[in-house]
Amino acid sequence: MTRILRESLEHGDLKRLVHDELHVDEFKSKLGDDHDVVVVSFKVAGKEPANDIVSFVEKGYEWVIDADVSSGEMEDGDYIVFVELPRDRDSVENIMAMMKDLMNLTEQDVGDWRLRYYTDSQEHKLDLDTLNRLVPQSPEEYKKRFGHQELDKLKTAAGVKVNTKAPKNDLTTSLKIAAGIM
Q1: Average pLDDT, integer, range 3-9
Q2: Phi-psi label, residue 7: left if phi above 0, alpha if psi -120 to 50, beta otherwise
Q3: 171 vs 182: CA distance, rounded Å
Q4: pLDDT at site 15
Q5: What's the rounded Cα separation, in Å, for the pair 103 and 90?
Q6: For residue 52, is pLDDT > 90?
């Protein structure tokens, strides 16, 4: 006679294993176009806890398109968890709902978390207002904000001169300095 052991995550099971920084739209979607899909990611100490979170997210939210763990570990031994969800008017509320549930597993406070959005080099406090301000909540809004970058990639591939200027921030300034053009 065989018995099936069923385990699930409980309060505090992931304490001290999840880094307190959420990245949004930093990575490309695997299952859709970036203008249609929001990709959130965060680091987890260890492959097994990362897999537990992926399972938790995929089973816990009907709006999740996909969740996955990075194929290999980072330099520091951590793994990245990726969660893809539709880019729509509910996306930021869904992100916050998932994060609040994750806080139950990690015994962290969502108010202590930081947020990084796409090309923005600044860290922000993770809260609903900041997500609403930073994350495009429709494909049209995303295209309006970042559509020129796709056009620039096509121009480069075709050998056409690209005349779009990079945003001025710490990252672009440091790249210009490193390249000797500033």
Answers
A1: 50
A2: beta
A3: 13
A4: 82
A5: 20
A6: yes
Instruction: Count the residues in the chain.
Output: 182
Coil vs helix vs strand at 28: coil
Task: Give the pLDDT band (50/70/90) at residue 178.
Answer: confident
Alpha-carbon separation of residue 68 from 8, 65, 103, 143 (angstroms): 18, 10, 19, 25
Report how far residue 71's alpha carbon sits from residue 112's, in angstroms, rounded to the nearest whole number: 28
pLDDT reported for residue 154: 58
User: According to CATH, what is the number of the domain 21-141?
Assistant: 3.30.1360
For tokens 């999840």, what's the residue? 18
What gap in Å lies between CA 13 and CA 52, rounded to an integer? 10
CB of 79 closer than 8 Å to CB of 86: no
List, in sequence order, every residue forming a beta bridge with 69; answer none if it has no partner: 81
Q: Where are the domains of the chain?
A: 21-141, 146-179
Q: What is the CA radius of gyration of the chain?
A: 19
Backbone angles phi, psi at 52, to 5 degrees: -60, -40
Per-residue pLDDT tens over the stretch 87-136: 999 999 999 999 999 999 999 999 999 999 987 889 999 999 999 999 99
